[in-house]
């Protein structure tokens, strides 16, 4: 099983600033089958990034994904008020599929 | 617009059973691997099970193996999760997920003693 560890657990940032969230896998993620989701309170998760770096339809270009192997990053270049939420990374390759524990983006 | 709508959640006694459904629209349902994912109150996401397009391949997380059964009916654009021997720790919102793309809004399952 691939264990995904996200850091930091909580990040306090001001609107307009840059945020960098990390996702580290316990073993190499095959075929770059890694996604990022955004979840707001009371809502279902929403796909932001798939295949490590491809933006989903409707994802603003201030969101970017990068990385390979075991280390992955979600970067939000200029935070907007609507970006404050919880973010999860997800490996969707060979079962069992797994999610990171989440990183919460707080308004500073 | 793609929509996935779950139903079937509710309050159930420990040891009881429940069957969840997920109906898809706006997508070619039969083209997608389908998953069930849950989220306990205030916690993160937990993948439970996936099923191939033609139902020939299924996988389960260890936490539900032997208790939960995933199935689908492509003619009705529907995905199911039969949950038996329910435990307190199965209390969660249950989501269906098409591949990695599309999520339903979730259905809440509460297991009481």
Helix content of chain B: under 10%
Number of helices, where a helix is a run of at least 4 consecutive DSSP H or I residues of chain B = 0
Number of strands of chain B: 11
Specify the overall morphology of chain B: globular
Provide the residue-averaged pLDDT of chain B.
97
The N- and C-terminal alpha carbons of chain A lie at a distance of: 36 Å
What is the count of helical runs of chain A? 0
The interface involving the most residues is between: A-B, 20 and 19 residues
**Average pLDDT number of chain A:** 96
Which quaternary structure do these chains form? heterodimer
Portion in strands of chain B: over 45%
Give the SSE string of chain B: EEEEEEEEEEE
Major β-sheet annotation of chain B: 7 strands, mixed
* Rg of chain B (C-alpha, Å): 13 Å
Question: Can I get a quick summary?
Answer:
The complex is a heterodimer of chains A (108) and B (113). Chain A is mainly β and 108 residues long.
Please explain how this structure is put together.
The complex is a heterodimer of chains A (108) and B (113). Chain A has strands spanning 4-7, 10-13, 19-25, 34-39, 46-50, 54-55, 63-68, 71-76, 86-91, 98-99, 103-107. With 108 residues, chain A is mostly beta strands. In chain A, strands 2, 4, 5, 6, 9, 10 and 11 form a seven-stranded mixed sheet that branches. In chain A, strands 1-3-8-7 form a four-stranded antiparallel sheet, with no helix packed on it. In chain A, a hairpin with a 3-residue loop joins β5 and β6. Chain A is globular. Chain B has 113 residues and is mostly beta strands. Helices cover 0% and strands 53% of the residues of chain B. Chain B has no helices and eleven strands. The radius of gyration of chain B is 13 Å and the shape is globular. The A-B interface holds A 33, 35, 37, 44-47, 50, 56, 88, 90, 92, 95-102 and B 35, 37, 44-47, 50, 59, 61-62, 95, 99-106.
